What we know:
The chain is of the alpha+beta class. It has helices spanning 2-16, 19-23, 28-31, 40-50, 52-65, 67-72, 122-189, 194-229, 250-260, 262-282, 328-394, 400-434, 440-443, 452-459; strands at 37-38, 78-85, 88-93, 99-104, 107-118, 235-236, 288-299, 309-320.
Amino acid sequence: MTSHRVRMGRVARNVLRTGTALGLLSCSVFAIADARAETVSDALVKAYQTNPQLNSERARQRATDENVPQAMAGYRPQVMATLSAGLQAVRNLQVDNTIQGATLKPWTIGVTVTQTLYNGNKTANSVRVAEFQVQSGREALRNVGQGVLLDAVTVYMNVLANQSLVEAQRSNVTALRETLDIAKKRLNAGDVTPTDTAQAEARLARGQADLNAAEVALSISQATYAQVVGVLPSRLTPAEPVDRLLPRGREDAVTQAFKGHPAVLAAGYDVDVATTTIKVAESSLLPTLTVQGSASKSSQSDSTLGTYGTDQASIIGQLNAPIYDGGLGAAQTRQAKQLSTVSRLVLEMVRNQARTAAIGAWVSNEGAKTAVTAAEAEVRGAGVALQGVQREAAGGQRTTVEVLNAQQDLIQAKARLIGAQRDRVIASYALLSAIGRLDVKTLGLKTPDYLPEVHYHQVRDAWHGLRTPDGK
Length: 472
């Protein structure tokens, strides 16, 4: 009986060896960092620099910047050069019924400069529309950046949690094997029945299946990590919640979401775009004033004309006032007004969504704190219960199945604690995203912040050139 008690004590130590520590994401297998150790900040930096979704959105924003110089082209003169040359066969019938023929080589060269002086303020309002589109696009880019960073945190914590879960399941399988060995020895000694060994074998098989499922989940999470971050995970170190950056209360979270969430700000700029577009549509109902200067030189080799060449130069002012265009301009104006109404309703909808997201993120973060505390208490209680059941089983007061049930309770408690601590970290970052502050500057990441305004100023006043600032 003493030997059984010693064995049962050894099983207890093996099972509890990774007790609460295994449930914690700061378990020793991850706390020991070497030169290849990777923190959550490192993962965020890699995702911020290399994520294809984020980089494609940056390229899209650079394309949006080009709307401004396109609109500003309306302020600038339009210069057109023309050149024509060819052969022309001519046959002239004279009064005396004789025919005179010649092959001519006429050519003309000229240049025309057109400058719009007034077009109903269409150019000015088009520039304003383009600038509002740039502002909206920047907020959309910031929103995508938040999503990528939150995805990076999520995959990081999933890998970390699945690694801990695999270690916990391995420890559980080891303990179940020792429990089975003890049951077999006690069966040979006549202390238990074959039912006990069968139950132990069944639990061991279940433990092996759970370990396999945990290893599969870990492989999937590692592949997802590579997709988001750009590289496979190495040795990950524990991550902490970002509580220091979070709002103090629920209403504070809602207020910050209204003021700083990129989706809300982008919708506000979209309202400005739609409102200014009304003025662009109305410009088609107003007069247009242009001035055009031209110069040309032509050559004509027909001697019968008495002129061999012509030089011309002119400056012409032109005023066009629309009287009736079939109702096109009026329809476009009415359409723009309706779209402006749509944009205002979308802004209200986005604000409501931001409020809901902020409240949901706040509640989830608070709930995650409670879940971690409860799970830690459950792991401690399950560990104590397992030790007690094992001691009582060694004294013949408990059956093997009761020991197995206690072991199962402990491993399930550990799994819940691992999940709760993963959710705790993710929830804190999700709340930071819900208030619009999940960015490089707020997190203090060691990487240059991407500044979309740099490209904007590079192209805004560009008069010519096909190459982009990056040299393409």
